[in-house]
Amino acid sequence: xxxxxxxxxxxxxxxxxxxxxxxxxxxxxxxxxxxxxxxxxxxxxxxxxxxxxxxxxxxxxxxxxxxxxxxxxxxxxxxxxxxxxxxxxxxxxxxxxxxxxxxxxxxxxxxxxxxxxxxxxxxxxxxxxxxxxxxxxxxxxxxxxxxxxxxxxxxxxxxxxxxxxxxxxxxxxxxxxxxxxxxxxxxxxxxxxxxxxxxxxxxxxxxxxxxxxxxxxxxxxxxxxxxxxxxxxxxxxxxxxxxxxxxxxxxxxxxxxxxxxxxxxxxxxxxxxxxxxxxxxxxxxxxxxxxxxxxxxxxx
Length: 300
What we know:
Elements: H1 10-30, E1 51-62, E2 68-73, E3 82-85, E4 92-94, E5 100-101, E6 110-118, E7 124-130, E8 133-134, E9 149-158, E10 163-167, E11 172-176, E12 182-183, E13 186-187, E14 198-205, E15 211-220, E16 226-235, E17 240-243, E18 247-259, E19 262-263, E20 274-281, E21 290-298
Parallel strand pairs: 3-7, 4-7, 11-15, 12-15, 18-21
Antiparallel strand pairs: 1-2, 1-6, 2-3, 4-5, 6-7, 6-8, 9-10, 9-14, 10-11, 12-13, 14-15, 16-17, 16-20, 17-18, 18-19, 20-21
């Protein structure tokens, strides 16, 4: 049958209307009034890792507990001073002889290269400090406690409360030991030193003339030496003494002669003088017959 002109196709019109309605519903679902897009989470922030640094300079101050070290950097364009944190049990401090020690062993005026870490906030922490020694010509102006460095040699004549050292010049100097002092390269105390030991001490000179020792070397240990006591019966022309009837004592160029806290000369060794001789035995037997003297102590 022929289709009437002007009469719509009802099936086609219904399908078109359904398509338009579906599109409108989808559009409303995506763009609802007042709807917002969910915020995306930001990645967690992380602090920048520390970076290695190296600096060389002169120590200007050290905190008493060794917690910080302040240095004045050297070299072109150097700025400062720099405060560097020291970590107990973490920072390694090495003296110029290779011996490791405590953080507070560095002294104002010492030249030090420092290796460590710089943090994002600018803080500096030392990993290793190498103490090279005092700047030539003394410490620069503005350096606190800028004591001179000194090495002295002598005989210990007292140990209480500090070590008293009779020097080669005949003066008595007080030597102060600290936890950082090394005796023969080992951590020691004044109890490891004995009266009449012959030692050399290296350290800083304090305002009162005493020395705070960094290291002490024992050249001659009296307690482990041969020892003989007697009265001089004879003095020979060949730099020898006779004690009693048969004990010979040979004087050496390095022999020390001490009475109390004073240094004496061979001229003070006369017959009738009571002495104690420390040295090495060159003839056997239960009682030395010949002894090479390193130290002679005059009793009276």
